[in-house]
C-alpha cells in the first residue's frame, strides 16, 4: 500500500497535471519529496486528452512487473480566458469536444 497523503499533498499532486513534465521526470511535492516518475505522457491531438502516467519507480530502470503504484493525472480543460495565448487548446477543449 502507498503512502497516505494529506489533503495539502493531494492538492500539490493534482496541480502537477498542469506542469510541463516529460517521460522519466521525477514528480515531487513538499519542496523535493519524490512521489514517482513520469512513465508516459499522453497528448492526443485528436481528442485533446492530456495526461501523465506516474509510477512509483524510475521507468528507465524499473521493470513493469515491479510497479506497485500508478497515478494518472488528467489535465482539465484550458480556460476560455486563455483564448489569446492558447487558442488551439481552448478550441479543442470547448468547441471540438462539445459539438455534436
In brief:
The protein has two helices and four strands.
Question: What are the salient characteristics of this protein?
Answer:
single chain, 100 residues, 4 strands, alpha+beta, 2 helices
What general outline do the C-alpha atoms trace? Answer: globular
Largest sheet: 4 strands, antiparallel
List the quaternary state of the chains: single chain
- List SSEs in N-to-C order: HEEEEH
Distance between the termini: 43 Å
Spatial strand sequence of the major β-sheet: 1-2-3-4
Radius of gyration: 15 Å
The number of domains is 1
What average pLDDT do the residues reach? 83
Number of strands: 4
Structural class, judged by helices and strands?
A: alpha+beta
As a percent range, the share of helical residues equals 10-25%
Q: How much of the residues is beta strand, in percent?
A: 25-35%
Number of helices: 2
Walk me through this protein's architecture.
The chain has 100 residues and is of the alpha+beta class. The protein has one domain (7-96). The mean pLDDT is 83. Helices cover 19% and strands 26% of the residues. A hairpin with a 3-residue loop joins β1 and β2 (33-43). The chain has a four-stranded antiparallel β-sheet. The longest helix has 10 residues, at 87-96. It contains two helices and four strands. It is globular and about 40 Å long.
Topology record:
Layout: H1 7-15, E1 26-29, E2 33-43, E3 50-55, E4 70-74, H2 87-96
Amino acid at each position: 500500500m502507498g503512502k497516505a497523503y494529506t489533503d495539502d499533498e493531494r492538492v500539490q499532486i493534482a496541480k502537477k497535471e498542469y506542469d510541463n513534465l516529460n517521460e522519466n521526470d521525477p514528480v515531487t511535492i513538499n519542496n523535493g519529496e519524490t512521489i514517482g516518475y513520469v512513465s508516459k505522457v499522453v497528448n492526443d491531438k485528436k481528442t485533446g486528452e492530456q495526461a501523465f502516467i506516474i509510477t512509483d519507480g524510475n521507468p528507465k530502470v524499473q521493470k513493469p512487473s515491479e510497479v506497485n503504484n500508478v497515478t494518472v493525472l488528467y489535465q482539465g480543460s484550458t480556460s476560455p480566458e486563455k483564448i489569446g495565448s492558447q487558442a488551439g487548446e481552448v478550441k479543442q477543449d470547448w468547441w471540438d469536444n462539445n459539438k455534436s
